[in-house]
Amino acid sequence: MSELSVVSGKSSENLAKELSKTIKANFVKSEIRVFPDGESKITLIGKLSKKKSIVVQSIYPPVDTNLVQALSLITKAKENSSEVIAVIPYMGYARQDREFLPGEIVTMNVLGKLFKSAGASKIIIVDIHSLIGLKYFTIKTKNVTAIPDLVEYFKKLSLKNPLVVSPDQGGKERAKEFAKEFNSDYIALEKTRDKKTGKVKIKTKNLAEVENRDLILVDDMISTGGSIIKATQFLKKQKCKRIYVACTHALLMNDAENKIKKAGVTSIISTNTIPGKTSKVDISKTIAKAIM
Ligand code: R5P
């Protein structure tokens, strides 16, 4: 038996399978039965390594269910293996990393405590929303970037005089990194978000430099699609050519994919941190590098 086992949560089964092949680990599958009241009953199929287990489970919707499953898998892995690494490709709650309005609970702080007490000694996350979220963990942390993998995909497309665009100033560094790997220019729009309603607005006015160019809108995640839709509507008015979207985590809530396409986006490309129609980029080799 391998010295390593990859314990696959249901939300990341394919990614965990790819990862186990790359790192030559024993693959341990979880079977889930969800009771009528919403509780999950998890059964592991396969043998856990005595030495090291790697639990892989993204925390996308149903967020709390996937979170409890992740913590349960880590707890069980720790009963068998002396070392447990938690790979959380998409870290739900990462946007709740500070008190934006008085009285708000910083849920990332709660998660930091939970992952430690479940038994993980290290956590690997792909493109966490902000590095601030990592400060709540007292175990080792590693944030892995999916940008080189996304760039590889985009290099295969024939784009016309491409320009990388971040929909907001918060994503400027991400756009810069993407542009550097892609060998192009980049810009960042000015976006505001109402802290109560969540509604977004683009504050940038005229932008002649996008005219007649293909654009790649780069973001860490798409949830409702509000940020991408507003940016697309603005950029189309500035007479750009095609708009592509590159993002790590495509949650695409409430028919967001159709709404984004309707706004004028040619194609959305995301990674398999969240499996779905747009997840064309496999991130397992990059995660493997962070483990080995
Ligand atoms: C915001 O700072 C993030 O980077 C994303 O732009 C945002 O969370 C996406 O959410 P939505 O799709 O709901 O606008």
How does CATH name the architecture of the largest domain?
3-Layer(aba) Sandwich
Structural class: alpha/beta
Q: Into which percentage range does the β-strand content fall?
A: 25-35%
What is the number of beta strands?
Answer: 15
Summarize the helix and strand pattern as letters. EHEEEHEHEEHEHEEEEHEHEEH
Quickly count the domains. Answer: 2
CATH topology annotation of the largest domain: Rossmann fold
Work out the radius of gyration.
20 Å
Written account of the structure:
- The model has no long low-confidence stretch (mean pLDDT 96).
- Helix 1 packs across helix 8.
- The longest helix is centred in the first third of the chain and has 18 residues.
- The strands form three sheets. Strands 3-2-1-4-5-6-7 form a seven-stranded mixed sheet, with helices on both faces. A six-stranded parallel sheet has the order 9-8-12-13-14-15, with helices on both faces. It has a two-stranded antiparallel sheet with strand order 10-11.
- It has eight helices and 15 strands.
- It is 30% helix and 28% strand.
- The protein is of the alpha/beta class and 292 residues long.
- The chain has two domains: 152 residues, 3-Layer(aba) Sandwich (Rossmann fold); 126 residues, Rossmann fold (3-Layer(aba) Sandwich).
- The structure holds ribose-5-phosphate.
- The site of ribose-5-phosphate has 14 residues, from strand 12 and helix 6.
